């Protein structure tokens, strides 16, 4: 039975987009794309429907002349070889060979046309992958521990839990009209591999003694998110057993759906409801919905490794290794990707894993095969032993393709990292993130050095510039970085960062790291 959309009669003023969503469920646009727009072409798509294309996982690409970008959701970032090959083939056939790894472990294509979508959807579905609801006001890609199942630092393998929650919410019309986007993470890794604090709902490793037995489960954190008003997720006083994860996720999402704000788009994320209600009231409402919940146990998050894994590392399974590759600013071509799929099949466990730092892991490599894998030509550029600054550079899409961007980011981030690697010697890896507008897809707030695109006026007109913020970190001491005074012209960024890092190098006290 369909649920009652209680906000429609709540008396709350609704923003314009809510009326578009009331006229048509975002999921209906997928059928219209397949049956109609793919045949009638770009010019035939009504504007309202174009805004609903997000539910199909696609956005219009800049400059809105008929091309689209598409995100593919990947549970925990873990793909099998058949899935990886299908993704590479789609990039070759339709996406001009370009593949971006996003900060939510998705693969993003560019240059797609609406005529291509039915075949892309079909190719994805054949291998159990979807772009549906990778964007839009709905539960999006569920991020997780890319090392799930092979991780010496996880309390339990969370692969099937992420799949279970994903399968419940994907294309579920009871949850396809939320007030705004909704992001979940589920990980049992002790070093916060899924960046818990910046999700609407995050499950992190915990244990609790219940009836004399130590039970492995999760703690829940709610209301995290970035953009112009960033919030760190706050801990709910609950302990969640693995078999209750889905129930909790349904409860939290239901409260957001029914009580989240729908008046202003920029004030609609769950974080604003949590900020007003507080976690205690939220928990009361959750227990009214779900019945009594177990109180917290003992946290098992020990630190934060920012989802970086470069190098060769032993797995939980004796004699096997995973290899963390650097994908400079998350961009690779389809041939490189397909070569990685071949390596995964020939030498590894047949898995390719994407990380929230926009990188890729190969896994299941036996000790005796490691050297052979390291000699593969594709690992020359996608190296497991990257230079320091290139290894820690993250960038959003920027104005090359994104309609919301104020400045170019991706190529600039790559050039800045290259410059710093050539000019600065440092025994520490500093994380540098670029974003092209306040929406923060490149997660600027959690970087050691975060750069946000802006414009400055000069005698020759407006030019690209950046606000610079320092000191972001997640994990037990989580905090967002703080913006420094002044705005730096785009061309001056390499020199300014060089000076900033050298000042730190010359003045740091013993054992101090950049985020201290
Ligand atoms: Fe586009 Fe802004 Fe997101 Fe960058 S941060 S991809 S510019 S919306």
UniProtKB/TrEMBL annotation:
Residue ranges occupied by any Nitrite/sulphite reductase 4Fe-4S domain in the UniProt entry: 135-290, 394-516
InterPro entries: NIR_SIR_4Fe-4S, NiRdtase/SiRdtase_haem-b_fer, Nit/Sulf_reduc_fer-like_dom_sf, NO2/SO3_Rdtase_4Fe4S_dom, NO2/SO3_Rdtase_4Fe4S_sf, NO2/SO3_Rdtase_FeS/sirohaem_BS
Domain of life: Bacteria
Protein keywords: 4Fe-4S, Heme, Iron, Iron-sulfur, Metal-binding, Oxidoreductase
GO MF annotation, one: 4 iron, 4 sulfur cluster binding
Coiled coil: none
Domain Nitrite/Sulfite reductase ferredoxin-like: 59-127, 313-376
Family: Belongs to the nitrite and sulfite reductase 4Fe-4S domain family.
Record's protein name: Ferredoxin-nitrite reductase
Organism from which the protein derives: Paenibacillus aquistagni
